[in-house]
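Hey, I was hoping to borrow your eyes for a little while. There's a protein on my desk that I can't quite get my head around. The fold is given in discrete form, as structure tokens running alongside the sequence. I'd be grateful if you could look everything over and explain what you see. Here's the protein in full, and shout if anything looks odd to you:
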Amino acid sequence: GGGGMGMATKTKSRSKGKNKKGSGGPKQAPFDAAASLLRMESIYDKLCKEAFKQEESESDSFDSITTEYVVTARSLSANAPAGLSDWVPVSQIVLVRPISEDERGSEHAKETIRAAVSELCRESYFAATLSAPIFRRIPANDVEYAAEPLGAFHRYVYDDVIEGKSSTGTSGGKGEEAMGKAEARKVLNLDEGVTDARDIKSAYRKKTFALHPDRFVGVVRTDEEIIQSATDFTNVKIAYEVLSSGVRDTSSSASWYESLGGKQRMEFFGPIELLPISAAKKTLEGTGCRSAIVGLDPDLAMAFVAR
């Protein structure tokens, strides 16, 4: 379905008053973001259904690639309302690219994402005001946007913040299991509840110094001791990654939202420098790309506003 993991929400249409007749000439009607967002829902569902049929077909050749993205928004103002100085998920975009476009590489793909977010920025702003009404306190031109594939959002953001799971797996003694934050604190000898980035980094440095392979040069050790030392050293690095994900660094202006997932999270794209809407449409039409947008569940957005 077009909702994408059940996060999308339906848009309610607004009742419209009757237009009053005037003596002036014809005027261009202002853009109705609510009506456009409502229309987009059916287009979104149609594009996702087409992608599903393509995946289910027995043909080995595909003519397009369909990707869903979560769009986040934040205020550009230095005096942003509480909760809007960092990214908040507000909408979801589906982007269908011809195979020929997808094969041109990730940098070119970013340009099509940029064009899609730019073309649909009015709908994104309206969706933001629905999912997090606090956005109504800032003008649309005071909002900037970012985007990330839906799968990456679920793995690195949703599972961590909403489900309380860590997406950082281990490659040492724990195989494919995920290390929880409580276990990570034990590995680094940190007290329960420690969240300060400086304390975490200090503990990490002490442990890596104590376990670094260079400290054992010339020391006679058994094979078991060598393996255990290597495993402990790896787990210390993993523990640091786990605890660094989603930790607010009070010593800098770094984005808490962008820190989620640590170094493994590489597909977040933003802030996006918006194109003029006419130029964005031209880019999408010229590349044969199609896009649509839906809003997100208010509970999801407010979980980030409230942090």
Summary: The chain is about 45% helix and 15% strand.
